[in-house]
Amino acid sequence: MSARSDKVVTASFSPPAGVQRTGRDQRLGPGGSRQGDEGRACLSDAVQSPSSDPSGHLLPARGEKEESAYRAAAAVVDPEIPAVTIADLGILRGVEMDGDVAVARVTPTYTGCPAVLAIELAVETALREAGFEPRVERVISPAWTTDWITAEGREKLRAYGIAPPAKASNSIRALFGETEVACPRCGSLETARISEFGSTACKALYRCQSCHEPFDYFKCI
User: Fold this and answer.
1) Is a pLDDT exceeding 70 seen at residue 144?
2) How many helices (H) and strands (E) does the chain have?
3) CATH number where 138 lies
4) Which domain, by its residues, includes 122?
5) What does pTM read for this prediction?
């Protein structure tokens, strides 16, 4: 597996008011750390905290205004999975102050995700309602990975009825679509995939052989 570049690449798109793109290198974490060159295997037991970015790197302390802006943006929920916030999913890369402007950086879960514009507009609205002049920048490199879903986010997915990404995505079995997925309702491993796509493109549809309930599985990316 080749190492991922740490350089930030931003999307080329025509943003609405308040949503801008940038062509310069950006700080990725809430306080300025960059994602390193670690592999992208799903690590469901990875522990993250507000003091670290998705890669686990420690972040400098934020100022009071920056902290307030970050919390406002972090509270935005995913429009497709309202049980989790964009911070839970790890797609909020960071918020920093640029003078009087709160700059939030967001990474789509995958290129072409239909929810990304809705998320950017929701972040802009949340920052404006918190008293900030907002600017939202879309960051597309390093690419988002399910490694960045927090432990709390995984539990929220499970409680909502969606199986979080399995741990063994880098196994030989996973390469052939044989990932072992536990039912989020009863915990049984006797599950079967019904369809490669579930309610959205990033999820697959499974059925539990024990409780006979269908459920979505958040694919490992």
Assistant:
1) yes
2) 5, 9
3) 3.30.300.130
4) 9-148
5) 0.69
